[in-house]
Structure formats: structure tokens, C-alpha cells
Write a structure and sequence with these properties.
3 helices; 33% strand; 2 domains; three-stranded antiparallel sheet
Length: 91
């Protein structure tokens, strides 16, 4: 990579891009949440479709797994929770 002014510009541009990504991720979550409120189903936009599903997902407490990894212990520390998935794809 360059030095001096080029490096400064590159660092500043990276910082700006990361800030934009952060803002876009927040907006993405807001939009996702508003679509998820519609509940399970398929919804149409003009250019994209959204598919909302609500499923149960099993999760593992990874910190606890690191301490003890027997199969019985693993089963005892696995839990289920409801998960809403929103998928958007082009038409």
C-alpha cells in the first residue's frame, strides 16, 4: 500500500466504508424486523420477494462445551428456541 497522503486517504476511506456498513446493517435490521412482524409467508416487492419462516433452532452453549464435552453433557446443555428467518431474493 502507499505511504504518506495515499495511506492516509486509504485509512480514512476504510473508516468511512466501515461506518457506512454499520449504518446499513442497522437499517437492514430495521427493515428485516418490519417484514418479520408480518409473520410466516411470502411477500412481494417490485424487485424482490421476501420469505418469512419461523422455525425452532437448537443452540449449544459453547462456553460450557469447552469445559466438558461428553455426549450426555452435550445433550443436557442443548436448548431450543424460536427463530424467524427472512430471505430476500431477486425476481
Amino acid at each position: 500500500m502507499g505511504t504518506g497522503n495515499n495511506l492516509r486517504r486509504t485509512i480514512d476511506e476504510l473508516g468511512n466504508v466501515r461506518k457506512q456498513i454499520e449504518e446499513l446493517k442497522l437499517r437492514e435490521q430495521e427493515l428485516r424486523d418490519s417484514i418479520a412482524l408480518l409473520g410466516a409467508g411470502q411477500y412481494d416487492g417490485d424487485r424482490f420477494k421476501a420469505n418469512v419462516t419461523v422455525d425452532e433452532r437448537q443452540n449449544i452453549d459453547l462456553d460450557a462445551v469447552r469445559e466438558a464435552m461428553s455426549p450426555q453433557w452435550l445433550r443436557a446443555h442443548t436448548f431450543r428456541q424460536m427463530v424467524t428467518t427472512v430471505r430476500v431474493f431477486g425476481r
